[in-house]
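Below is a filled-in request sheet from our internal design queue. Each sheet records the structural input a requester submitted and the sequence that came back. We keep these sheets so that new team members can see what a complete request looks like end to end.

REQUESTER: design group, bay 2
PRIORITY: normal
MODE: inverse folding
CHAIN LENGTH: 139
BACKBONE (tokenized):
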């Protein structure tokens, strides 16, 4: 999904913040991958566009964009990955052997979410899960 299909500038403003030049470059870099990307990959892409933006700024911006739900983050093979947030939750099954990634619909978690709400009086924010295991070919 492209960040150009949603008014991210307005969403940043609605959260009480400004859209800075650095935030725009980081957002553009994340979007350019069209897939999950690590912070190191994003940093490299940012430096291709704007070499003066330092590592700390990129990492702070990734954290900020994740906190205000403009990016999804998760962990794959011990690395934090980022991608542009989608309007609806989505999840992935990731084979830890071959690396295959399959999409998993949000409805798979409806019963779990309801159980957590009922039993623990807690509303989970499950927007993006990456579940590792073995695909059919690697089992």
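RETURNED SEQUENCE:
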């Amino acid at each position: 999904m492209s960040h150009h299909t949603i008014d991210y500038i307005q969403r940043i403003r609605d959260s009480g913040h400004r859209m800075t030049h650095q935030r725009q470059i980081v957002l553009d870099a994340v979007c350019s991958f069209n897939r999950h990307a690590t912070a190191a990959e994003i940093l490299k892409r940012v430096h291709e566009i704007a070499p003066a933006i330092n590592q700390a700024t990129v990492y702070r911006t990734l954290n900020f964009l994740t906190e205000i739900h403009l990016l999804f983050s998760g962990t794959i093979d011990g690395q934090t990955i980022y991608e542009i947030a989608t309007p609806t939750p989505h999840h992935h099954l990731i084979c830890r052997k071959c690396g295959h990634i399959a999409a998993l619909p949000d409805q798979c978690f409806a019963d779990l979410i309801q159980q957590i709400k009922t039993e623990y009086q807690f509303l989970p924010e499950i927007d993006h899960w990456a579940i590792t295991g073995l695909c059919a070919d690697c089992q």
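SHEET NOTES:
- The chain has a mean pLDDT of 88.
- The first strand starts at residue 37 and ends at 38.
FILED BY: M.R.
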